[in-house]
Amino acid sequence: MKQSICFRIVSTLLNTTMRSHTYFDSLGSARIMARVLDGKALAKDIRDELKIKIQSWINVGHRAPSLRCIIVGNDPASHTYVRNKIQAALEVGIEAQTIKYDETLSEDALISAIETLNQDKNVDGILVQLPLPNGIDERKVCNTLAPEKDVDGFHITNVGQLSLDMPTIVPATALAVVEMLKRFKIETFGRNAVVVGRSKNVGMPIAMMLHSDGNHDSGLGMDATVTICHRFTPPEQLEVHCRNADIIVTATGVPKLIKANMIKPGATVIDVGITRITDEQGKTKLVGDVDYDEVVKVAGAVTPVPGGVGPMTVAMLMQNTFQAAQKLRNLN
């Protein structure tokens, strides 16, 4: 009865959108749940923007940007990711092809294939889907790509330029996080940010852009005060750092690592983690690093999994490909 009365009173004060995100806590008090940062919808907006830009590019006499996706082996998840990338590329007007190799392909043969694409003036962007089979050095392979065609942003030159806050090709997942913060108007200037996970392709570039000076040449700096946590951060210290954060970006692949009691009320939580689990009913599903159902009751804004950073990563890869094409045409 108490909850029913509270709901009638609160309903007269809240607009329709706010009501849809209202719940009652254990004491019967009305609470507003976090704003859900819909990466799927935002990614569509960005793809629509790119489609217009690319068509205008073609209309003035340029050929369509071109992308080559190399995949080695038969990992089902990797093939799904590549199909999604190819589909997105074709949708925005990028000419894209998948180059498939058996898992028995040698490292030397893969490097030779990449070098051929490096020299092909009809190819603007190249990506090698990771992970690669055992016996192939991923770092060596990534460094074989021509930096200007490395649309994943993994080449040592692109990583180095990013660390110096210079214009460069930025890893797509990291760029997706920054773009979401900007487009959803999440204030970062002077805020405390925690990045959980220090991978070289995700956590590290995210941390660098969050802390970088917004006045530098890259234009990507977000001027936050950044703390990086990782697997050797003691759990109690991870909680302390997270509770002090205005923004949390987590990318560990550890389901429900970030719990509601670790969140400052009103904080923004960006969940990059993605893990396939089997629930109590025996069904498989994708989950993130965040205990979403509980965190959404405390945070000010949160990304879902799936439907958050994932679709945005693909959109940013398309943006990287178009920008690579523009730069290459200017060089030639």
What would your notes on this structure say?
A hairpin with a 5-residue loop joins strand 1 and strand 2. Helix 3 packs parallel to helix 12. It contains twelve helices and 13 strands. Strands 3-13-10-9-7-8 form a six-stranded parallel beta sheet, with helices on both faces. The N terminus is likely disordered. With 332 residues, the protein is an alpha/beta fold. Helices cover 41% and strands 16% of the residues.
For the structure shown, list the relevant keywords.
3-stranded parallel beta sheet; 13 strands; 41% helix; 16% strand; disordered N terminus
Q: Layout of SSEs?
A:
Elements (H helix, E strand, L loop, with lengths): L1 H10 L4 H4 L2 E3 L5 E3 L2 E2 L2 H21 L6 E7 L3 H17 L2 E7 L5 H13 L5 E4 L9 H5 L13 H8 L8 H12 L8 E5 L6 H9 L13 E5 L5 H9 L3 E4 L17 E4 L3 E4 L5 E4 L4 H4 L5 E2 L6 H23 L1
Parallel strand pairs: 3-13, 4-5, 4-6, 7-8, 7-9, 9-10, 10-13
Antiparallel strand pairs: 1-2, 11-12
Helix pairs in contact: 3-12, 4-12, 8-9, 8-12
